[in-house]
Write a structure and sequence with these properties.
Layout: E1 2-5, H1 11-20, E2 24-28, H2 39-47, E3 54-60, H3 64-74, E4 78-82, E5 92-96, E6 108-111, H4 117-122, H5 128-143, E7 147-150, H6 159-166, E8 170-173, E9 178-180, E10 183-184, H7 186-196
Parallel strand pairs: 1-2, 1-8, 2-3, 3-4, 4-5, 5-6, 6-7, 7-8
Antiparallel strand pairs: 9-10
Helix pairs in contact: 1-7, 5-6
Length: 198
């Protein structure tokens, strides 16, 4: 199973993810979020990602000019986009979609369960019911030929079940392998990769 480790804020975490067999490492460029990276920090993390592992930038409602600037500066292999995808991107695109969107045949899409405002305020992940809905959606999207990357609330304890239920093309983990926001746990990352069958 392909694994993307997202929200990486330290070079050592990027190196460990790659050593464990990560398919991709995600760096977040969404201001006012706990794992947001400044350009200097992002450059250090990018330098720790070897050839053969996708360096992914995560953006939300980003202008085409800003996106192009960051892709070029960091030599990003792919971008994960929340909101409208600008035209002419010179990188692979992982598009975040809503669960009721029409399947995008042949596209790489991020599918994650919905969270309520109360969940966000409390720092909680998605509910069990929301996760199951996302897993079902990922399975139906895979049947159309979309490359479904499943995210949201995945941990070493539930990723094996999620893989069985959703049959995703890849899985994406961030807080589920952290000791605190932005700091990955070597123990949890190792357990996640093992449970995911990576």
């Amino acid at each position: 199973m392909r694994v993307k480790v997202c929200g990486v804020t330290r070079p050592q975490d990027a190196r460990l993810a790659c050593k464990l067999g990560a398919w991709a490492v995600g760096m977040i460029f969404v201001p006012n979020t706990p794992r947001y990276l400044t350009p200097p920090k992002a450059a250090r993390i990018r330098a720790a990602i070897p050839k053969g592992v996708l360096a992914v930038g995560v953006f939300k409602h980003v202008a085409a000019e800003e996106l192009a600037r960051v892709i070029k500066a960091l030599k990003l292999d792919a971008v994960q986009i929340y909101g409208t995808v600008p035209r002419g991107i010179k990188a692979r695109v992982l598009q975040a979609v809503t669960l009721n969107a029409r399947p995008l045949r042949g596209k790489m899409v991020l599918i994650e369960p919905a969270r309520t405002d109360a969940d966000r305020r409390a720092g909680r992940g998605p509910s069990r019911a929301a996760q199951r809905k996302a897993w079902k959606t990922a399975r139906s999207w895979r049947a159309t030929g979309a490359r479904a990357v499943l995210a949201g609330g995945l941990t070493p304890h539930n990723v094996a079940e999620a893989v069985r239920a959703a049959g995703p093309w890849a899985v994406d983990v961030s807080s589920g392998v952290e000791s605190r926001p932005g700091v990955k746990s070597a123990r949890l990352m190792s357990a996640f990769f093992e449970a995911a069958g990576a």
